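Form 7-S
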Amino acid sequence: MKLKIECSESYYAALANMLRAVIAGLDIINDSKSEAEYLLELDVLPSDSRNMAVAKLYRKQKLILRLEELFIVDNEQQRTKIEKKQLKIVAMKLFNQYFAYEISPWGILTGVRPTKLVNQLLKQGLNYNQVEKRLESEYMISKNKRKLLIDVVKKEKEVLANKKSSNRQLGIYIGIPFCPSKCDYCSFASYPLNKYKDYLKDFLAALHLEIEQLGSLIQQLDVEINTIYIGGGTPSVLTKEQLTSLLAKLNQYFVSGQEFTVEAGRVDTITKEKLEVLKQFNVNRICINPQTMNQATLDKINRNHSLTRFKEVFALARKLEFETINLDLIIGLPGEGVSEVKNTVNQVIDLAAENITLHALAYKRAANLKDKKELAKFKEIKQAFALARKKLANLDFNPYYMYRQKQTIANLENIGYAKKGYESIYNIAMIEENQSIIAFGGGGISKLLAAKTKKFERIVNPRNPVQYIKTVQAKIAEKKLELTSLF
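Output:
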């Protein structure tokens, strides 16, 4: 769908970004010389004591739909913000009506971290009932999503209340951006080892240097480490010897008092020897990610493991008595509907993992919501996602963190579920941004929270291993300056 938008320049970017996020495959044309089949006009008009947000949709220069919404500006200093929100609402209602379909159960909310909005409203003194009403009236969020948001926030608060916290706590993230191969659906920082293996040795040397120099400073500052997370990429792509060397280096400078997680996500990279190394260095939480329990789908998406091997690896991890095992599942994979998701969830539940994370597939190609087949697919994916959530809830899995991504299929979300007492501090910290995280390695993003201003200083390591190696000294210096200022 090619669309031009005509509105005040003050509102254009926010409206365009919202519509791109909620309408899959939307192509917004902002070049005056280029043609678009559709034109959306948005304006705010005075109407007696109130204001009117007006949306008009044209197709081939013919008006096909018009909507109006009355609203009050009760704070002149907030006029621009209020008008922008009302234009989003009227535009969303117009497209819902045009497509005869709720294009986003998240309404006009497009951010990665929707739970932060709930926490902001609670800090303003609202109770949960008042928060829910605001989410409905001001953001058009559906009843199911409102309940999900509030359930997650309540669980976050319960988890954090039971954990020791202070302003002198720091989380550690280690990014290993290499993978054995690139999965077809992946959008994370990952570089196939067969193409980048010549850089691995120098990458690890740079990573060790970063750990040594920043680790020494953190020890001097006497900062408590409450969580360590090794992600990627695929950390378990490292050899047993490389993994041992890395964990020994980390152990020299950092000891997590609460949790130590390693993503051993790719089953085809996991061996008994590697799991024993993780256990030796007190890793207590690992992620083993089948994504689906349907072999035909695994073959289709370039996930190079068999279901038999996955179950063998899981059994090995269980035998070694890791405290928490997380399993990632993806809803919306090619060719999968309700029956395939039901099969996956049933098999995973039988394994009795402590954590299960549901991911909605990021939708990469254009979608036509006027196409009945496309719309039917979206509806089936929603049904499959709802089925998975219901089954987990019935087995006392609670949603404890969540986030959204752009262009997820059917505008769904990613949700982490856990049995009571097995929630991850790191996952909550990363989504709520409520504590400092120092990141090492490829693609690692340090977020250092200043105690006085409550604002984050972000320092981003390059994803590309070659660029990481080249810039590591400069990034070390930058982080030393921020850490010294913070602590």
